[in-house]
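Record DUF7075 domain-containing protein, 149 aa.
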Amino acid sequence: MDIVSAISAKMNWDFDSVHVVRGEKAKNLEQWPNLAADTSPEALLSALQDKVDDGRNLYIATDEPDISFFDPLRDKYSTHFLDEYNNLWDESSEWYSEMTKLNNGAAVEFDGYMRASVDTEVFLRGKKQIETFNDLTRDCKDGINTCSS
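=>
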């Protein structure tokens, strides 16, 4: 079973996507001085207003552990996150069954690498794709003074 296609299908293949990097980078003001402010809910609403139509399905690929952080966006968009679809890889899923068979009966964890891969692939299927370091913040992806242009 293709988890990425299943997630996209649940949004009727009609969604925009935004990648919001936060986590440790947002806490490191020395390397990313603007990231936390530029990815706040208020800043996101402002940045997205001219890019994503009101009411659209918006897939948010993020490393922010607290999804409620994005609650202010729910008033304007139909927000979606990877964890909403965890039934696609839980112990009763087709994916889990297939992976266990392929692994000689040993369970396979849907780990951080797989989560990041699926999140990225769903993000790339969005009709519009808004990225943290190209669209939301003026900080450089690899830290201060590392932007190529």
